[in-house]
Amino acid sequence: MAAETIRRPYVRHRSAFWWTRNSRYLLFQIRELSSVFVALYAFLFLFQLWALRGGPGSYAAFLDFWYSPLMILVSLAILGFTVLHTVTWFLLTPKALAGRFTRSAASTVFIFVLMLAVWIAVSYLVVILLFTPPAAVIPSGGY
Amino acid sequence: MRNTRVDAIDKVTPMTWGLFSLGGFIVALLLPVFIVMNGLAYSFGFASFDTVDYDATLTWIGNPLAKIFIVVLVGGSLFHAMHRIKYILYDFGAHRHKAVLEPLVYGIAAVGTIAALFLAFSFP
Question: What is the interface pTM, i.e. ipTM, of the complex?
Fold first, then answer.
């Protein structure tokens, strides 16, 4: 009976800043970074719901914070990163689909344009179904 | 003795990638419009204050569809984003601490989703 060998898994050395060496790696990492902003928005929204539960005074304080110039800039940054996510996600949608047709260059463009159309339709439905009847927010100078 | 241990089939990794993928579509389709409607529309003068104040927000969340939307949006965002954040941390050299990071990131996503469920349905 041979002795059991105790092995440590091999971990290849890699610089923590490997992604700064090449613009493609950098763009990849900026896209991945969008997730930090998505998570931040989810937690800010949970904080908003918490403030809403606290009553009118607590929500008024939240609105002062939410509509401060700094937070408007933060919201714009989150929106920018989220749109970057949306565009890159639709570009890789055809790559995740199986089949020969979906791997061609023409179908990549077709599926990307199709996903953009779906995005616009879903956004419109969200505004109509969730926002217009109770809290009439009409984004085209309705006031 | 020869190593006869057979690695258990990994059921967690495919599930986290599945949630990442589903969350990716939820974020892509629903988050931009929500960021605009929940803040920027008023900031840039496309909506009046009485559409974003306490009463309007309570009315908005009174819609059952809004409650479901909140849970789907927060859950999708967190399971998608925490998965990607895990791989960002791996890229920065944290791949040696996989055993700690995996339960931590998905734990945060799960707690956030449960919080969204509880908060959304706590309103009349």
Answer: 0.90
